[in-house]
Amino acid sequence: MTEREGLSIENLTIAFAQGRKEAISNLDLHVRPGEAVGLVGESGSGKSLTARAALGLLPRHARVGGRITLAGQSVLDLSPAQLRHIRGSGIAMIFQDPMSSLNPVTRVGAAIAQVIRSHERVARSTALKRAVALMDRVGIRDAATRAASYPHEFSGGMRQRIMIAMALAAHPRMLLADEPTTALDVIVQDGILKLLDQLRRDERMGLLLVSHDLAVVGSLCDRIAVMYAGQIVEEGPAAEVLMRPRMPYTVGLLASARRPKTLARLASIPGTPPPLGERPASCRFAARCPLAAPQCRAGAIPLVEVGNGHHARCVRTGDIGLLDRETFTLKAREAVHG
Amino acid sequence: MSLAPERTTTSRILPRWLTGGNWSLRIGLFCFALIVLAAIFAPFVTAFDPLQLDLRNALKPPSLTHLLGTDHLGRDVFSRVVYAARVDLQIGAIGVALPLVIGTLIGLVSGYYGGWVDAVIGRVVDVIIAFPFLVLVIAIVAMLGPGLVNLYIALTMVSWVLYTRIVRAEALALKKREYVLAARNLGYGHLRIMLRHILPNAVAPAFVFAMSDFALDVQVGATLSFFGLGAPPPTPEWGLMIAETRSMMLSAPWVVVGPGLAIVVVSLVVSLIGDGLADLVRGIDD
Amino acid sequence: MVEPILRVEGVSKSYARKSVLPRGAVPPRPALSPASFDLMPGEILGIVGESGSGKTTLARCIALLERPDTGRVLFRGEDLAALGERDLRTRRRAIQTVFQDPYASLNPRLKVGEALAEVMLVHRLASRGEVGRRVAALLDQVGLSPQAANEYPAAFSGGQRQRICIARALAAQPDILIADEPVSSLDVSVQAQVVNLLLDLRDQLSLSVIFIGHDLHLIDFIAPRIIVMLAGEIVETISADGSIADAQHAYTRALMEAVPSLDKLAARTASSSESPAQ
User: Which one of B218, C15, C117, C180 is most buried, counting C-beta atoms within 10 A?
Assistant: First the structure.
């Protein structure tokens, strides 16, 4: 089975003890080696929590169900020591804010070398040389001199490159990137995204890119999973999801990211997601969905295959054509009530 | 389109510190309330007049009649300890309240205006902080003459600087917050911005500090009374009680154990409140 | 000819560098080179640039939250930059700002209703008797329920807070609204809601709007006229009848290329796959 090699999340449920509110419900997600998967959702959808769970980085009061395996090894059953080992060489993560992830009093070269030495028995000088090579690799010019600089001497984009170099230091098979470019300027963002794309191809490394921005995810992922209120509501090949979305929420997300000059207003999804304690057992998007019908509120909606490797959690997939893809409004209102 | 608030805050009939898990605050406040009530209703809590001499019963060890024994003049130690709480809690309360108010306002002005105002205030603060706290208090009281009023003056003159430092730092950070910029943008006056938009968000750490300061002031009050610079005899006051009877400490230890324990317990209770408040402040900011 | 409501003339600003050397020994860091432009009544002017481009400094100089070093900020012909603090305070109401970070823009200890009422009471725009009704009307105008008035800011999401900030600015009945990256920290789907709200309000209240951001495509959607800033300087102005596609400056073109866009993606995917969309 190929999934044994990559990251495999099966039936993941995360609840918080207080009130037993489920933040993530029965989530399945697979990232094969060398594959780039985008996890898209609004804040509060549970996308970052999912990524953290894969690293065993959950708050202590979280209750976790399901399985997460990395190269066949179950992440949730590992001891803290085993977890430390797997973080880095098995799976590495980069975050939105690189400044708070870097020790301000450690020179960046030494910081990268530290990661290398914590996973391999190599001499300090060798580790430092490799750190410089890594910095060069992630596009930091004049790496040999810059290795002696401190984090605050770098710009936000350069710091994120250093974080990537640190993440790569132990040759991870899987890289998780949680909103890696959200705090960055667009031109810098473009550079980081291109770097991530090139690295995962060169290293045959799996990449899970978490973002609220479909355009960011779409520009470099093979597959896209869309999360809404703790569930995956659509998942499939990137081109399929972007060009032929089969779940109204995805249609709305896509529409609200477009800037068509022909329209007077941007398309938007009215309302807000249901809060943690008030998520219905049936379709969680129904309250905001232009296509919502009685059967949407009848019971739990399964994630069903709607095309080649393309899944959607929607009972009205067949009627998706009634939605205007530009404005996220109904083309024929009667059709819905009929 | 009309959006209701996303997270409907559960109606706050009970404040969060009562419903949450903040036990140190709860226990602290409960004990503090007990102590205050005991001090207010001292005549009902005690069986003896704290000033009544009874030389025939001098230096009696603790018994059912005299819970903490009697001192060298036959006065009931328990009664004196309870009545003394009136004086000592007052020292703590006034010794904290005055510097808290004055120091906070000066710190607010210093942090908000910055520039030369801040520089001048800063230097004054530095000078006062450079002296050891107790030495300065004793020196001022010695200059002004003994007595509780002069003790309050001395405590205020010395400890406002601590509140000024705390609040100034908060105000300095809050000044750059966007809601303060928005308040300026809306054309609000300096006084309104300082008192309504900065002060409520800057005082929490000062209140937390006030609790440990309270314990310190009670101890300083006792110390000064011990040296004869605070409450005049025969006023029941913990420090004074220890001073008066210290020569009998070895033969009749109960005469100092009572007031000594009282000082320790009050300090402990107030620290508990301080810890609880600190947790509460962190909780709000999260 | 219509007079501009705001004329910015040669406004510049530099900040003193932190240094151990005596003042004046280190030249100050210029944050904004002299900038000039007009804002017409009812116009939406877009300002686009990255961090460090000076766009926020420019916004704060216009709102006189920073005193410009040089230049004039002429509002209806009067130079605000030349006014003393006291005179300025009475004029501030007219130019309001919505800031980038909705989590730092609201006083956490004031209920939403109190924050909105304060604006109207201070400027005597409403009496105590009618202020409650006015608060409810403002909340309704920005798409929030009147019950929101009784809540503290902590009860609201980022997008909802930004609506509250807009309501607070509107409470002052401004002529000019400066929106300084108002949607940059919001989710894409919420960005659209807030942008639409601003466009609606501009139409209803005939506000003049300066919309600042880093997403050139979004600015292009909102604003007919766009100023492009780089390193404290205005490097290009795209007029209302021009198009960003015809942008001359290399930086503008780079900005346009760098923004990940679904429209671009769609075009690329459509050309690479045989089956066209739908």
Answer: B218
Across all residues in chain A, what is the average pLDDT? 87
Minimum CA–CA partner of A44 in chain B: B6
Q: CA–CA separation, A118 vs A115, rounded Å?
A: 5
| Chain B contact present for C93, CB below 8 A | yes
Give the C-alpha separation, A291 to A319, whole Å: 8
Q: Closest Cα of chain C to A1: distance in Å? A: 29
Q: CA geometry: angle at C59 spanning C57 and C62, to 5°? A: 110
C177 CA: distance to closest CA in chain B (Å) = 11
The closest of C106, C155, C107, C115 to C138, measured between CA atoms, is C115
Per-residue pLDDT, C15: 85
Mean pLDDT of B186-197: 94
Secondary structure of C107-142 in the HEC alphabet?
Answer: CCCCCHHHHHHHHHHHCCCCCHHHHHHHHHHHHHHC
Rounded to the nearest 5 degrees, what angle is found at the Cα of A265, between the Cα atoms of A261 and A269? 120
Q: How many CA atoms lie within 13 A of C30 on its CB side?
A: 11
Amino acid identity of residue A306, one-letter, is V
What was the pLDDT predicted at A188?
87
The model's pTM: 0.86
Contact status of C158 with chain A (Cβ, < 8 Å):
yes
Report d(CA B186, CA C170) in Å as an integer: 10
Pairing of strands C6-15, C95-98: unpaired
Is the CB of residue A295 less than 8 Å from the CB of residue A315? Answer: yes
Residues of chain B with C-beta less than 8 angstroms from the C-beta of A275: 6-7
Helix ranges restricted to H, chain B: 16-19, 23-40, 42-45, 77-113, 115-130, 133-144, 148-174, 178-185, 190-192, 199-202, 204-226, 238-245, 254-285
Number of other CB atoms surrounding residue A202 within 10 Å: 9
Dihedral of CA atoms A76, A80, A82, A87 in degrees, nearest 10, equals 80
Note the pLDDT of residue C139.
96
Inter-chain residue contact C189 with A214, CB threshold 8 Å = no
Specify the pLDDT at position A277: 80
Beta strand residue intervals within chain A, DSSP E: 7-16, 21-31, 36-40, 62-70, 73-74, 91-94, 174-178, 206-211, 223-228, 231-237, 304-307, 310-312
Can you tell me the distance from the alpha carbon of B280 to that of B274, in angstroms, rounded to the nearest whole number? Answer: 10
Interface test with C, best of A40, A186, A217 (most C CBs within 10 A): A186
Q: Locate C196 and state its tokens.
A: 């639409």
Q: How far apart are CA B272 and CA B17, in angstroms?
A: 14
Q: Nearest-CA distance from C70 to chain B in Å? A: 20
Task: Give the list of residues 6+ apart from residue C42 with CB closer than 8 angstroms, or none.
Answer: C202, C206, C207, C208
How far are the Cα atoms of A35, B137, B143 from residue B154, in angstroms, in the given order?
72, 5, 10
pLDDT band at C62 (very low <50, low <70, confident <90, very high): very high
**Cβ neighbours of residue C193 closer than 8 Å, sequence gap 6 or more:** A268, A269, A270, C143, C159
Q: How close does chain B come to A275, measured CA to CA in Å?
A: 7
- Read off the tokens for A249: 């929420």
Place of tokens 């796959």: C273
Q: Which of A61, A265, A269, A272 to mutate to test binding with chain B, by most B CBs within 10 Å of its CB?
A: A272
B7/A275 Cβ within 8 A: yes
Q: Do B3 and A271 touch (CB under 8 A)?
A: yes
Helix orientation angle between B77-113 and B115-130, rounded to the nearest 10 degrees:
150
Greater confidence (C22 vs B112) lies with B112
Whether residue C260 and residue A190 make contact (CB cut-off 8 A), yes or no, is yes
Can you give the pLDDT at residue B9?
Answer: 40
What is the distance between the alpha carbons of residues C211 and C44, in angstroms, rounded to a whole number?
Answer: 7
Whole-angstrom distance, CA of residue A330 vs CA of residue C68: 50
CB contact under 8 A, C199 and A265: yes
Chain C neighbors (3+ CB pairs < 8 Å): A, B
